[in-house]
UniProtKB/TrEMBL annotation:
Name under which the protein is recorded: FAS1 domain-containing protein
Membrane topology: Lipid-anchor; GPI-anchor
Organism: Salix udensis
GO cellular component: plasma membrane; side of membrane
FAS1 domain ranges (all copies): 116-222
Major localization class: membrane
Length: 222
């Protein structure tokens, strides 16, 4: 995997590369060594999801002399990048996990892939946080939230009722104070509820590096 990681692909491109390594047909050890006419082209998840242009999401499997089995992406001009090493797990006709000598190379799978567009404020509005979303837009804090999406983002979203009750105090804050307060509700990493439950210690927020270095402490109460 080091050769793949050294390419420093984006997470979205890496997803395509990994999906090229998931075949949509079952291949156990026996089937690999009993391929009709010694070669077969099979579809991968890269092809099945519609992400692959043309037939670039297919993999060629070929039986070689000496009992070896080779694998190569269909768009690699006939180059067989990897050979079968051993079977790790086989549940016949359901799933098999096979070790190969190295990752498959595919120019199409490794092509730069744009990140999906996520509208943070639109998502918040649909989840009962429209008032908070409106404050992000009005203050300009929205930009900071959206810039952190690709690297991971957790938002603590006050409900509309909470925001409406707090508005008299909010209106008395200066513009920088409003931005800092709003940024305080975001963490620049992804944290699920389960991850938060198992965390202890100081957590940086989007406001930690601002004029007022706001962070908070997570304490596991057991």
């Amino acid at each position: 995997m080091s050769s793949l990681l050294s390419k420093q692909l984006s997470v979205y491109t890496l997803r395509n590369v990994l999906s090229l390594h998931v075949l949509v047909d079952y291949f156990g050890t026996r089937k690999l060594h009993q391929i009709t006419n010694g070669t077969e082209v099979t579809a991968t998840m890269f092809q099945a999801t519609g992400s692959a242009p043309g037939a670039s999401g297919y993999v060629n499997i070929t039986d070689l002399n000496g009992g070896k089995v080779a694998f190569g992406a269909e768009d690699s001009n006939g180059k067989m990048d990897a050979v079968y090493v051993k079977s790790l797990v086989e549940i016949p006709y359901n799933i098999s996990v096979l070790q190969i000598s190295q990752p498959l190379n595919s120019a199409e799978a490794e092509a730069p892939t744009a990140a999906p567009t996520l509208n943070v404020t639109a998502i918040l509005s649909k989840q009962g946080c429209k008032a908070f979303s409106d404050l992000l837009i009005a203050s300009g804090a929205q930009t900071t939230f959206e810039e952190n999406v690709d690297g991971g983002l957790t938002v603590f979203c006050p409900t509309d009722a909470v925001i409406n009750g707090f508005m008299p105090k909010y209106k008395n804050l200066t513009a920088p104070q409003k931005v800092s307060l709003l940024l305080y509700h975001g963490i620049p990493i992804y944290q699920s509820l389960q991850m938060l439950k198992t965390s202890n210690g100081v957590v940086n927020t989007l406001a930690t590096n601002g004029a007022n270095k706001y962070d908070f402490t997570v304490q596991n109460a057991g």
